Amino acid sequence: MSRPLRIEYENAFYHVMNRGRGRENTFLSDDDFKYFLYCIEQASLRFNIEVHSYCLMTNHYHLLIKTPDANLGRAMKHINGLYTQYFNRAHNTDGALFRGRYKAVLVDADNYLLHVSRYIHRNPIETNTPLVEDLAKYKWSSYPAFIKRGATPKWLVRDFIFSLQGKKRKYEAYKQFVEFENNKEISAFYSAKKLLSVLGCEDFIENIKEHITTSDSERKLISKKHSADDVIAYLAKHFSVEVDGIITVKKGRKEKNLPRWFAIKLCQDLTGLNLQALADVFNVKHYSAISKTVGRLNELMIEDKKVKLQLEKLRECLISEVKI
């Protein structure tokens, strides 16, 4: 049996979904739901993905994702893998948690993104056994955040969906759209026995054909690999510091060494080196120090958007090889 098409290109939108193996539950407690959201947060920081809607059900999930860097596969591998490891530890199980590879539908944003977001948010009441009567009360969905009835995760992107409606009263307008409007074409699309890989108009489908790739060809539309030396040299020049100041651990140093933190993060994202190889490059005894450093940077980026923007700019420049 051939594997499904994988269509990846910069700034693409996807409706991503997966369910438990054998339709078994993938979320057994509030802690499980919370940890999956944490996995999404980590992926958004590490792989620069944008999450525009989400809904976590008891035995499956739905995500609406934009990939500025054409790296959906890497981001989803991280989310599913990290959560599966957690779930097996927490519930004393082992083996695969999800039913094979995730399903990803490439979405024509101009014509269908708003409707896909509606479809995702209506999942809790569209099942055979509705989980809630009031969508706003389902807390494992981004819908409450879209209608200002719940907290908004820092990584959730809402403005683009709102812009597609073009109305001033965005919260109320979106609520009315989700709860009272319908689209027969969308209903038919998701009711099909075999879900297609693309949801779009004819022109959209024609335009993305050149990006279609299969697992057999292994043709990836991603940036070429960088060497760790190139990344480190680039950051040393940008921050006007010595390379030694980036690759050497400063004992007793308490202040944030952002050039080093950025270098570790970008080497992890762009070089393809594993944690042990990165530990060798950055002169630490154990690879766990790499993960801890990336974790500290991720926390800092959540607290300070300027740091996140700075990292994104550096990544863009490295990928395009344009000097800052």
Number of helices: 15
Structural class: alpha+beta
Walk across the major sheet and give the strand order: 3-4-2-5-6
**Oligomeric composition of the shown chains:** single chain
Characterize the main sheet: 5 strands, mixed
Termini Cα gap: 47 Å
The total count of strands amounts to 7
Average pLDDT, all residues:
87
The helix/strand series, from N terminus to C terminus, equals EEHEEHEHHHHHHEHEHHHHHH
Which stretches of 5+ consecutive residues score pLDDT under 50?
Answer: 213-223
Radius of gyration: 21 Å
Helix content: 40-55%
Strand content: 5-15%
- Overall shape: it is globular
Explain briefly what this protein structure is:
This protein has helices at 30-47, 72-91, 109-121, 123-126, 143-146, 159-165, 170-180, 184-191, 202-208, 228-239, 243-247, 258-270, 275-281, 288-303, 305-320; strands at 6-7, 12-19, 50-56, 60-67, 103-107, 198-199, 212-213. It is of the alpha+beta class and 324 residues long.
Please tell me about this protein's structure.
This protein has helices at residues 30-47, 72-91, 109-121, 123-126, 143-146, 159-165, 170-180, 184-191, 202-208, 228-239, 243-247, 258-270, 275-281, 288-303, 305-320, and strands at residues 6-7, 12-19, 50-56, 60-67, 103-107, 198-199, 212-213. A hairpin with a 3-residue loop joins strand 3 (50-56) and strand 4. The chain has a 5-stranded mixed beta sheet with strand order 3-4-2-5-6, sandwiched between helices. It has a two-stranded antiparallel ribbon with strand order 1-7. The radius of gyration is 21 Å and the shape is globular. The chain is built from 15 helices and 7 strands. With 324 residues, it is α+β, with helices and mostly antiparallel strands. The protein is 50% helix and 10% strand. Residues 227-297 form the Chromosomal replication initiator DnaA C-terminal domain.
